[in-house]
Each structure stands twice: as structure tokens, then as C-alpha cells.
């Protein structure tokens, strides 16, 4: 009996230790990027509010605002509170059982793998969405996760500082550029810290499966002492300021919005391959207004909703498959490469395995910042 | 057919449907269990493959157990798009290496074979598969367990697909069976419907045999129907004949009574008047006898055709007949010695038998005014028949008349001096024939006539 007890205690301790390690590792990331999180924007109802919808999301308010406002035109009596989160805290708030009274009705996240884990572990409720019937396999899972935008990972560069002949048109170009002139780009390349950013990790793992060049590129990034960032906005700002010349694996939707105001900001949609992630939306199991939440998803995936999404996020998932024509037009890309979307499904869970994640991030960090 | 009435068609159809439903329910239960088994067998292999692929990647790094989760390990479970999956890798001391710490921990089997069981996890029923791997790394060596669980959506889907695809033909077969039974019943009933139509179409007086061609199964019904109509027709025509005969036979005595009465009215001489009255009286007696016999014949005809035939004791009937005779007639009848142990039961209308005996005795007494009437009642040699013999000492009947005197209104040449209608022996003949017997008229050795009636003997 005593032995059993000790055994149990041991297990509990080891679990706790593991959770602790995991927690420190995540919170390490949160601390760095807390400046913009938990910002709350209230979208007032146009008439007397009779219902309130709480959305937790990782999409910035500038992108999400138009979508919410257009939904309210059809539902003028609905007040919508939008709270900005980073991907990992969003995930954690969804699985925590303590904050029942502040539970969101909808979770919008660019980290589709974390959303898959939410659904797999039973924290999400299914919704039968009519508009989701046309969605391709990679954009919907179990009637619980719905992709509604396309987020290509693009390369942005400072047009004033990078010569036209230097502009990398593909991943291959980028590798060659960095390998040939490491001194010129030392400390001038920006990319996600995949240990901190959920989206960055998603892009990296997808690329590692997709491209034999991935680790060579990682190595090249290490040679030039690449600067690591938590968020796309910070990377773009750094490029705009001229602190960085090239940022790699930037969320296309943010870059697209910034080039309108910043003449020196340029976008490259790689010609060899493009990783696209879908921004996904789910209804948590503890949602207080699941019916209204369902209406919101139904709207977002409708033709009208998708038009607004395309406007504010650059690309919508409307239509079947991944629309290269849509991307070409939006990004003025000559030859966007092979489009690759990580599938929504169980495969996403593998890279979220704590050991695998830890190993992948450790290896990657050892190469990028030795 | 009214709602309450019993319907064979409905009963058979209802019975068939109930039987098919019970059969279908049994099949459903069986196939359902089988399809779930089949789905589990198929998907358990995938589950085992997932667990084994994880187990193959367990390594020891810096003295610690670690595992690199292969992407395919969970992806193969995800081939069924709806499935949720959970996994746990546990060290020999049951501490979690990676995965879901609260996933059900199987009993350590300590062999390399995959083990499966059902459990509830994350609010859903899951199928859990686990494999064990012995990892040797110094003092902490032991069995590392890999547990992979998946929700049952894909299994249920496959099982219901199997169930659906096996039940569809069965349901179709059941439907076809019901249809066949219903059509079969309709076909089986068709001849009866046709028969009904023909009977309705007939005029009430049409008693000719049914002409509608019917299948073998119904032909016996039709032939009994025809037989019945034939018998009915027989009764009808004999009644008609009797009424015609009655009118015809009554006309002569009534006419002569009337003529005699007219003459008598103007007769003054009391002696002559008395003669007229005597003749009127004897004519009236004749008329009465004719009416009685015709009525008896009608009654027999009616009884033979319409009544159930009980068994009657011929001896008892005989004794009753003798008692009805006038005293001098009673004294002339002499019954032969009977063997005691034999009963003389015959099957038929008692009325007919009574008329038969009455007429035999009446004839004997009438045509043989002298001597005894010897009556013998016995069974035939083989015991299957009852024989009644009435022998008189009268003039007898010549051989050439023996057959004709049995017909109606035919009288023997020797009978002119005796009043009679010519119906008596015919009544005897019909009554005997109705009971399945016959009448024979024989010459009595030493003069006289023997009337022998042979009837089938009824079982006691």
C-alpha cells in the first residue's frame, strides 16, 4: 500500500514537473509578447443590445474589425466584444476550467494545430454549418474547426535597402543569398522565434516536412545571426525601419495591409513553394451563446462574409482548394509556388507532442542562434 | 366481409409479417453484433500499427527515456476524418514520458502482442490499444507501454455501413416475400371470387351444374356444390311431381264423388240412396289414401334430402309399425326368431324407414287377405347388411311385373280387385335407395310373395 502510494506520488510529481517545464517554456514566450495581448475592443450594437458575443482571437483588430462590423449589419442588436490574444494563451484559456464566467463564444486563431488539439481533446463543440459544405478537407475538421482565411507565409524586404538583383524569389534564392553574402545580412534578417510563436512553429514544421532545404535554410539563418521575433507586426516594423532587410515567414495578410502605407515595404510570394495556414474559428464547449456563435461562423463562411474576409485578410478560403489565381491577384505575385496547407487533423497533433516540440525547437534554436 | 369476421387472407398475411419481423429483428441483432466486431477487428489493426510505430521510436537519451512521435502514427488514425486520438507513452515505473497523462493505463501484459480494450475518455467511448516494449538501459530497464486510443466514429460508420448493406437485401427480400404471399393469396382466392360471381349471376331457378373452370384445389368444392344442387333439384322436381300427381289422382275420386252426390240429391228411394252414399264413402276413402300416400312420399323425399341421418333400430321401428295396425292385421303378423346378440341398426331417416315398413305390411295384408305374414329381421352372412323380409301367402307377382310394380302408379295385374294407388312399393324402393339399400321381390316357395329389403348396417 505504501509502495503504491509512493508510486502514485512519484507519478504526480513527474507530471507536475513536466507541466512546469512546459509552462515555463510557454510563459517564457508570453512575457516577451505581452504588450499587445488582452486588448479588448467592444463593437457596440447598432440598436439596443439584446445579445452579446465574446470572441477571443489572435487576428489583430484592424483585420477582424471589418468582419465583425459587417456581421453586425445583419444582426444590429448584437454587441460583440473582441479580445486580442496570442495563440498559446488563447489555447490555455480555452482548456482552463476556472474562468467559466469569462468563457468566449468563439475562438479565432492562426495556430491551426492548437485548434486541432482543442477539438481533439474535447474542448470544442460541433456546429453544423451549411456554408462549410464547400470547404476543402484541409479547411474543416469534424464540423468543429472551420478555416476562413488563407494566410500565406511570405518574404518581405525593405525596397530601399535591398538591391533588385538581391531580391530572393524563392526559398532557394534566400539560401543562396545568405550563404553568398553572410556579412552583408548579418543581424539583418528577421523571422519568427518558433519557440514563442505558434504560427511560426506551424510554418516551420510544415516546411520541414515539405522541403529538403529546410535545415539548410535554418543553417543559413544561423550563419547570419538572424533576429527572432514573437510577432509578424514586429518583424514588419523592423523591416520598415530598416533594422532588418529581409523578413522570412511573415503572415501575408499583415504585410499586404502595410505595403499600402509603406512604400519601401515589398512582398515576395515564393516561387518554389508557399506554406499557407488557414485562420480557423471554433466554438468552445463552454460557450455561452453557441447559437449566435454558429450564426457568426455561418456568416463568415457565406459569400458575403468571405468577400469581407478577402478584403481585410487578403485571402479567403472561398472556392474550392487553394486559389492560386486569387493569391496572384492579391499579392501581385508573378509565380506563386506550390501551395501547401497543413491539413487540419490528427497529424497536427504529432508536432504538438511536448517531447517532439521541445526537440524540434531545441534543434532549431541550436542551429539558428548557436 | 365485415371487419370483425375472421379473414384467412388477413391472418396469413399478418402471421407472415409477424414472422418476418421477428426473423428480421433476430438477423438485425446478429448482423449488428457481427458488424461491430468486424469494424473493431479492422480498425484495431490500425490502432496497433499506430502504437507499434510509436514504440519503435522509443530511445534512451542521456539516461532518459524519450520518444520521437512519428507523424504517421496519428495520421493513420486520422485517415478516418472524424476520429479523435489520444496517446500516452509510459516508463516501466508508469510515469508518463509523453502524451495524455490521464489516458487509461492498461494492465502490464509484458509481451509484444498488442492489447485492446474499451474505455470512456474525454466524454466519449474510445477504443484503446496498447503495446509493450522491453527497453534495456541499466537498472531502470523494463517494459515501456505505448497506449493509443481513438474515438469510435470511424468504427461506428463502418459498422453501420456493413449493417446497412447487409440489411438492405434482407429487407428487400422480406418485402418481396410479403408481396409474393399477398399475390399468392389473391390468386388462391380468385377461383372462389369467380365462383361467387357465377352464383350471383344465376337465376334462382337455375340449378344446373357450375360451368366455371376451376383449379384442382377447388374442384371438390365445386363438385360438392354441384351435387348439392343436384339433390336440391331432385327434391324440387319430386315435390313438383308429387303436387302434379296429387291433383291428377284426386281429380277422378273427387269427380265421381261429385257426380254421385248430384245423382243422390234427386234420389228418393232410401235403399238406392244408401248405395250412393256407400260409393261416395268408398271414393272418399280412396281419395284419403291417395292423399296420405302422396304426402308420405313427399315427406320422405323431403326428409331424405334434408335431414341428418341418425342410426335407428329397425326392430323397434317394425314393432311400432305393427302396433299401429288394426287388431286383425296385428294378429296376422308373425316375427321370426331373432338371434339375440345382434343389433339391427341402420342409418337413415326414421320417417322413411317407418313408411317403408308400413307400406310393406300394408301391401302384404292387402293383397294376401288370408294367412300369416311372416316377417324376418336378420343380418347378412358377413354382418354388413340388415335384411328385412316380409312374406305373404297371396297371389304373388309374375316375374315380368316384378320390376315395373316398383315404379310409381304402376300396379300389378293381380291387384285390380284391390283399391290402391301404385305408390306403396315405390315408397319402399325410394326409402331403401335413400338409405343405400335395395328392394327385391321374390316368389315364396309354395305361393306368395317375399319382399326383401337389404339395408347397410350401421355401426353401433
TrEMBL record, chain A:
Q: Which SUPFAM superfamilies match?
A: Periplasmic binding protein-like II
Q: Where are the transmembrane segments?
A: none
GO terms for cellular component: outer membrane-bounded periplasmic space
> Is the keyword Transmembrane assigned to this protein?
no
User: Which domain of life, per UniProt?
Assistant: Bacteria
Instruction: Report keywords, A-Z.
Output: Signal
- Name of protein: ABC transporter substrate-binding protein
TrEMBL record, chain B:
* Reaction catalysed by this enzyme: ATP + protein L-histidine = ADP + protein N-phospho-L-histidine
Compartments (UniProt record): Membrane
Q: Where is the Histidine kinase domain?
A: 245-459
The record's section on InterPro entries has: 2CSK_N, HATPase_C_sf, HATPase_dom, His_kinase_dom, HisK_dim/P_dom, HisK_dim/P_sf, Sig_transdc_His_kin-like_C, TCS_sensor_his_kinase
User: What PANTHER family does the record point to?
Assistant: SENSOR HISTIDINE KINASE YKOH, SENSOR PROTEIN QSEC
The name this protein carries in UniProt is: histidine kinase
Instruction: Kindly name one Pfam family recorded for this protein.
Output: 2CSK_N
Q: Name one GO molecular function term.
A: phosphorelay sensor kinase activity
What does the entry list under GO cellular component? plasma membrane
**Source superkingdom:** Bacteria
Q: What EC designation does it have?
A: 2.7.13.3
Q: Which UniProt keywords apply?
A: Kinase, Membrane, Phosphoprotein, Transferase, Transmembrane, Transmembrane helix
Oxidoreductase found in the keyword field: no
List membrane-spanning regions: 12-31
**Species whose genome carries this gene:** Bradyrhizobium neotropicale
First-tier enzyme category under EC: transferase
Amino acid at each position: 500500500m505504501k509502495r503504491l502510494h509512493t508510486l502514485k506520488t512519484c507519478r504526480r510529481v513527474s507530471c507536475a514537473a513536466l507541466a512546469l517545464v512546459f509552462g515555463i517554456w510557454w510563459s517564457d514566450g508570453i512575457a516577451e509578447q505581452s504588450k499587445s495581448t488582452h486588448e479588448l475592443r467592444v463593437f457596440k450594437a447598432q440598436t439596443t443590445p439584446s445579445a452579446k458575443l465574446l470572441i477571443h482571437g489572435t487576428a489583430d483588430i484592424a483585420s477582424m474589425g471589418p468582419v465583425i462590423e459587417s456581421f453586425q449589419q445583419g444582426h444590429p442588436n448584437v454587441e460583440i466584444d473582441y479580445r486580442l490574444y496570442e495563440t498559446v494563451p488563447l489555447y490555455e484559456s480555452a482548456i482552463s476550467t476556472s474562468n467559466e464566467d469569462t468563457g468566449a463564444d468563439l475562438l479565432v486563431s492562426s495556430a491551426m494545430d492548437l485548434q486541432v488539439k482543442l477539438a481533439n481533446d474535447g474542448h470544442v463543440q460541433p456546429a453544423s454549418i451549411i456554408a462549410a459544405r464547400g470547404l476543402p478537407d484541409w479547411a474543416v475538421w469534424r464540423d468543429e474547426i472551420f478555416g476562413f482565411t488563407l494566410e500565406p507565409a511570405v518574404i518581405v524586404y525593405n525596397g530601399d535597402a535591398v538591391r533588385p538583383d538581391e531580391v530572393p524569389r524563392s526559398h532557394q534564392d534566400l539560401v543562396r543569398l545568405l550563404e553568398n553574402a553572410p556579412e552583408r545580412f548579418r543581424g539583418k534578417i528577421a523571422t519568427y522565434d518558433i519557440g514563442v510563436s505558434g504560427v511560426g512553429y506551424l510554418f516551420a514544421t510544415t516546411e520541414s516536412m515539405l522541403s529538403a532545404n529546410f535545415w539548410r535554410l535554418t543553417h543559413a539563418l544561423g550563419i547570419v545571426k538572424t533576429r527572432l521575433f514573437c510577432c509578424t507586426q514586429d518583424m514588419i516594423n523592423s523591416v520598415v525601419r530598416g533594422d532588418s532587410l529581409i523578413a522570412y515567414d511573415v503572415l501575408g495578410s499583415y504585410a499586404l495591409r502595410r505595403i499600402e502605407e509603406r512604400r519601401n515595404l515589398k512582398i515576395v510570394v515564393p516561387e518554389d513553394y508557399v506554406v499557407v495556414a488557414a485562420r480557423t474559428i471554433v466554438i468552445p464547449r463552454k460557450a455561452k451563446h453557441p447559437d449566435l456563435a454558429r450564426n457568426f461562423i455561418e456568416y463568415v463562411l457565406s459569400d458575403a462574409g468571405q468577400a469581407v474576409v478577402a478584403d481585410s485578410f487578403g485571402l479567403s478560403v472561398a472556392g474550392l482548394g487553394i486559389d492560386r489565381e486569387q493569391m496572384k491577384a492579391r499579392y501581385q505575385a508573378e509565380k506563386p509556388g506550390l501551395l501547401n496547407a497543413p491539413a487540419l487533423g490528427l497529424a497536427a497533433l504529432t508536432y504538438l507532442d511536448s517531447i517532439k516540440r521541445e526537440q524540434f525547437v531545441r534543434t532549431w534554436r541550436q542551429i539558428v542562434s548557436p | 366481409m365485415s371487419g370483425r369476421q375472421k379473414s384467412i387472407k388477413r391472418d396469413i398475411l399478418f402471421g407472415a409479417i409477424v414472422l418476418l419481423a421477428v426473423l428480421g429483428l433476430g438477423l438485425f441483432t446478429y448482423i449488428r453484433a457481427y458488424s461491430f466486431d468486424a469494424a473493431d477487428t479492422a480498425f484495431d489493426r490500425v490502432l496497433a500499427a499506430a502504437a507499434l510505430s510509436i514504440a519503435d521510436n522509443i530511445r534512451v537519451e542521456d539516461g532518459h527515456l524519450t520518444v520521437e512521435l512519428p507523424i504517421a502514427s496519428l495520421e493513420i488514425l486520422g485517415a478516418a476524418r472524424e476520429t479523435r486520438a489520444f496517446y500516452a507513452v509510459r516508463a516501466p515505473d508508469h510515469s508518463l514520458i509523453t502524451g495524455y497523462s490521464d489516458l487509461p493505463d492498461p494492465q502490464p501484459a509484458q509481451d509484444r502482442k498488442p492489447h485492446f480494450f474499451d474505455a470512456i475518455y474525454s466524454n466519449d467511448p474510445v477504443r484503446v490499444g496498447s503495446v509493450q516494449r522491453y527497453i534495456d538501459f541499466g537498472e531502470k530497464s523494463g517494459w515501456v507501454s505505448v497506449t493509443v486510443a481513438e474515438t469510435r466514429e470511424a468504427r461506428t460508420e463502418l459498422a453501420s455501413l456493413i449493417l446497412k448493406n447487409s440489411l438492405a437485401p434482407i429487407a428487400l427480400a422480406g418485402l418481396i416475400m410479403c408481396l409474393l404471399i399477398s399475390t399468392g393469396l389473391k390468386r388462391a382466392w380468385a377461383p372462389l371470387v369467380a365462383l361467387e360471381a357465377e352464383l350471383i349471376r344465376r337465376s334462382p331457378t337455375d340449378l344446373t351444374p357450375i360451368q366455371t373452370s376451376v383449379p384442382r384445389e377447388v374442384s371438390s368444392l365445386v363438385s360438392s356444390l354441384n351435387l348439392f344442387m343436384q339433390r336440391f333439384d331432385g327434391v324440387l322436381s319430386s315435390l313438383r311431381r308429387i303436387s302434379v300427381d296429387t291433383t291428377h289422382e284426386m281429380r277422378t275420386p273427387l269427380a265421381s264423388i261429385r257426380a254421385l252426390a248430384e245423382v243422390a240429391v234427386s234420389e228418393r228411394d232410401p235403399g238406392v240412396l244408401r248405395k250412393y252414399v256407400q260409393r261416395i264413402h268408398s271414393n272418399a276413402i280412396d281419395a284419403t289414401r291417395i292423399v296420405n300416400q302422396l304426402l308420405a312420399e313427399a315427406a320422405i323425399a323431403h326428409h331424405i334430402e334434408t335431414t341428418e341421418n341418425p342410426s335407428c333400430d329397425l326392430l323397434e321401428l317394425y314393432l311400432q309399425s305393427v302396433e299401429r295396425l288394426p287388431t286383425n292385421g296385428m294378429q296376422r303378423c308373425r316375427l321370426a326368431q331373432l338371434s339375440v346378440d345382434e343389433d339391427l341398426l341402420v342409418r337413415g331417416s326414421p320417417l322413411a324407414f317407418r313408411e317403408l315398413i308400413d307400406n310393406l305390411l300394408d301391401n302384404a295384408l292387402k293383397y294376401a287377405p288370408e294367412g300369416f305374414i311372416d316377417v324376418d329381421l336378420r343380418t347378412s352372412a358377413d354382418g354388413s347388411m340388415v335384411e328385412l323380409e316380409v312374406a305373404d301367402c297371396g297371389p304373388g307377382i309374375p316375374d315380368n311385373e316384378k320390376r315395373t310394380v316398383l315404379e310409381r302408379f304402376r300396379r300389378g295385374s293381380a291387384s285390380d280387385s284391390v283399391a290402391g294407388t301404385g305408390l306403396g312399393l315405390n315408397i319402399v324402393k325410394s326409402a331403401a335407395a335413400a338409405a343405400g339399400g335395395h328392394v327385391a321381390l321374390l316368389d315364396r316357395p309354395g305361393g306368395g310373395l317375399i319382399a326383401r329389403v337389404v339395408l347397410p348396417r350401421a355401426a353401433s
